[in-house]
Structures are given as structure tokens and as C-alpha cells.
Amino acid sequence: MSNEIPIMPVETDNAHHRVIRTFVKRAGRTTTGQARALEILAPQFVLNFQNQMFDPMASWGQERAHLPMILEIGFGMGEATAKIAQSLPNINFLCCEVHQPGVGALLKRIEELDLKNIRIFSHDAVEILQQMIADNMLNGIHLFFPDPWHKKRHHKRRFMQAPIVALLCQKLKQGGYFHCATDWEPYAQQSLEVLRAQTQLKNSSTHENGYSDKPSYRPLTKFETRGLRLGHGVWDLIFTKK
Q1: How far is CA 155 from the centre of its chain?
Q2: Cβ contacts of residue 114 below 8 Å, gap of 6+?
Q3: Is residue 179 situated within a structural domain?
């Protein structure tokens, strides 16, 4: 498994003939418990990237293959992911994260909570969307606290860009939703602008500012709780496919 954090090619820098990506290499120590989880549990819960469509029946079996499916992009250490999956047992979750300690941490939570509804891709989320997720397949997509790439010269690396949002729309079912949450207001503003410009999407917010209230299924992480205590804001954006 790679230690790279995705997510995807955004555009081509013609001057240097290279693809600009929205990930960087990230160092991190894998704990003994995470390494054990990777060794023992990965064969059951971590899926291989393949150049063919994802088959829910092969991953979940007949009993669960018909259930709604949500894709989570970049789950970090999996704290919120496990809580959401535990609270929504009748929804299947495909979760993408290439940071090895994070994958190991989520596998540990899967074992501890006896979760049946999570499968993991340790691979670039965009390549998964492009090559393994059929059009109109997903009931929802979660993107919680993506890297905001604060510096202006790095804004081109942000996940929330028009071509990427168009790809997400392509994979959502009609009535399916995309939910992004961020604690960086300029990123929230830019994301709102991109989402509003996508004609296939409708804002679910009832507020004039365009942001949604935090839905009950999204738990507060320790990081988020600390930020709120310090007076930092969090912005949720929820759009549905028309």
C-alpha cells in the first residue's frame, strides 16, 4: 500500500508536461495494533483497485448487495467513518484512504465494533470513481475536512473543482447527495461557488447563506470539538442530484 494521500489529477501543467495532483506524500508511523489489523483484516475488508466495475454482490453478498451505498473520500483515521457506519447499519460504505496508518486504524474500529457495512479502497479516489464506480451507482458521497491547500498558489490542488464535481455528479443516483464539511471558511466559500455552478445539483440548505446545518449522522470528531471550543467555525454543504 502507498503512503500517498490522494486524491486526483486536476489539470495538466503544459509548461512542464506533468499532471497537477491534489495529494502529497505524508509520513506516518504505523502502530503495532494498526499493523496487526492490516495483516489480519485487510484481506476481508480492503478491496483491490481494478480496471473493472465494482460489484457489490462480490463484496457484501446477497444479503447486503441491494442496500444503499455511500462513498467516503479521505477518511483520515476513520473515527467519524466508524461512528457513521455504526449508526447506519443498513447502508454500505465504500471508504477511500491511502494513508496506511489510517487504513489500519479504521480496520481496528471495524473489528472492535463488529461492523459489517464498510469496505476500504487504499487507492486514489478519483481513479476509483473513474474506473470502478458505475454511473448512477451511489446514493451519497462524503468529503469531510479535505485539505484546504491554504496558499493561493496551491488552490489548483484543491479537491473541490468543477471537473471533479462533475465526475461526482455522474456517479450519483438521481436524488443522491454530496456532503462536504470544512473548517476553513475560504474553502467553504469556494466550494459553495463550485457546487452552485453545477447545474445537476440542488442546494439542500434552507439558509440564505447556502450552508446546511450539521446532519445528525455526522459526528463531531475530537479535532472538530477542540476547534469549536476555540471558536473555529465548521461549514457543511449538502447538495442533491436533480
Answers
A1: 19
A2: none
A3: yes
**Would you say residue 38 lies in a domain?**
yes
Catalytic positions, written as ranges: 147
Q: For residue range 161-208, what is the model confidence (pLDDT) as tens digits?
A: 899 999 999 999 999 999 999 988 999 999 999 999 999 999 999 999
Helix (H, G, I), strand (E, B), or coil: what is residue 65?
coil
Q: Taking a C-beta distance cutoff of 8 angstroms, is the pair 43, 161 a contact?
A: no
Burial of 202 (0-12, 13-18, 19+ CB in 10 A): middle
Q: What's the domain range around 25?
A: 9-241
Overall number of domains in the chain: 1
Distance CA 35, CA 25 (A): 19
List Cβ neighbours of 220 (8 Å cut-off, separation of 6 or more).
Answer: 228
**Single-letter amino acid, residue 113:** L
How many angstroms separate the CA atoms of 236 and 181, rounded? 4
> Does residue 104 contact residue 28 with C-beta atoms inside 8 Å?
no
pTM, to two decimals: 0.88
Q: What is the pLDDT of residue 151?
A: 52
CA neighbor of 198 nearest in space, from 240, 149, 142, 235: 240
Exposure letters 153-176 (e unless 16+ CB within 10 A, then b): eeeebbbbbeebbeebbbbbeeeb
Structural domain includes residue 181: yes
Residue 1 counted as domain residue? no
SS3 184: coil
Chain centroid, CA 233 distance in Å:
20
Cell of 203: 442546494
Here the CATH number for the domain that contains residue 134 is 3.40.50.150
